[in-house]
Every structure is written in C-alpha cells, then in structure tokens.
Design a protein that fits this description.
Blueprint (H helix, E strand, L loop, with lengths): L2 E6 L6 H10 L5 E7 L10 H11 L6 E6 L3 H7 L4 E5 L3 H17 L4 E5 L10 H9 L10 H11 L4
The structure holds adenosine-5'-diphosphate.
The site of adenosine-5'-diphosphate has 16 residues, from α1 and β4.
Length: 161
C-alpha cells in the first residue's frame, strides 16, 4: 500500500487543492488530506469547518481519507505509515518555500519523500487567500471552489453583505 499525506491549511479547500488530490489518487493507493492544526496562520474557517468541507468534497473518493494533526509532519507521517508528502507547485513563487520545507523534512526523516504535483494551468493562479478576499468583498467564487465551500462563504459573510 502506497500511502501519501497531503498537508495544508485548506482555509478553505479550493478547486486547485482538489485538482492535486485527483492527480494523487492515480499514483497512490491512499491519500490522507490532513489539516495542519498548529499552523501560525489565523484561519477564517475553524478546524471543524475545514474538516467538514474537505470531507464533503472528497465524499465519493474511496482512496481519500481526511484528518488533522498537531506537531511535526514527519512524526505524523510515521504514525500514518505514509511514505510520501504531497505538495502542489503552482509557479516559481512556490518553489523557494517548498524547497526549504522538503529539504528540512528530509533532514528530519530521510525515508519520507516529498512529491510535487502540478495542477491544471487553470488553477496555477489560485490560492485560498485570494479566494477569501473575493468572498469577503462579495464577489462570486463559484469558479474557484466546490459548491459546498461557496455555501460556507455565503453563510460566513451573510451578515456583512
Ligand atoms: P499551506 O498553508 O501549507 O501552504 P495550503 O492549504 O495553502 O497550505 O496549501 C497546501 C498545499 O496545496 C501546498 O503545497 C500548496 O502549494 C498547494 N496548493 C494550494 N493551492 C493550490 C493550487 N491552486 N494548485 C495547486 N496546488 C495548490
């Protein structure tokens, strides 16, 4: 069984993340999409809200599990018997940070490989920060996120519209 973990903030999950998950399940037997709870970011959606959204979005995908973790990624990977960490590379701007992260994780655990996947070019400009900003300002995010996430945005910002 080839198990990969796909860690991130997923605040919220976008069509770009989903594109990466769909590619990953062609290569790995099990993909664990996991929310990093100890992120220094201050998320708009709670852990629970983000978990629920991801669960709903991957509902039909039998190879995908949804989870969250605290602490070091390498420890979590070991616990879950994962041999790979998945990350998405959109543009050169992602490279520097991802490069540092991958090599640091390799220092911490040499047997855990970081695997980079590139999304469809349609999603290369897409990130959760921009999507949150559009939604906050009342713009239409339906091209960028799954319908359940659009609903969650509508609910979150309805009092401000
Ligand atoms: P993080 O806070 O760790 O960057 P994110 O949820 O923003 O968490 O992203 C998790 C992973 O998904 C990262 O590897 C990021 O590069 C990737 N990712 C985010 N948006 C996209 C996208 N539109 N296309 C491909 N990969 C993406």
């Amino acid at each position: 069984m080839k198990i990969a973990i796909y860690p991130g903030t997923f605040d919220p999950i976008t069509n770009g993340h989903l594109d990466i998950i769909e590619r990953a399940i062609k290569v790995f037997d099990i993909v664990i999409v996991t929310i990093a709870r100890n992120s220094t970011k201050n998320p708009l959606f709670s852990d629970k809200e983000r978990l629920e959204m991801i669960r709903e979005v991957v509902k039909g995908m039998k190879q995908v599990e949804v989870d969250s973790f605290d602490g070091l990624l390498v420890n979590y990977a070991k616990k879950r018997n994962a041999t790979a960490v998945l990350r998405g590379l959109r543009a050169i701007s992602d490279f520097e940070y991802e490069f540092a992260l991958a090599l640091t994780n390799r220092k911490l655990n040499d047997s855990l490989e970081t695997v980079f996947l590139m999304p469809s070019e349609r999603y290369t400009y897409l990130n959760s920060t921009i999507v949150r900003e559009i939604a906050r300002l009342g713009g239409d995010v339906s091209d960028f996120v799954p319908p359940i996430v659009k609903k969650a945005f509508d609910k979150k910002f309805k009092t401000k519209k």
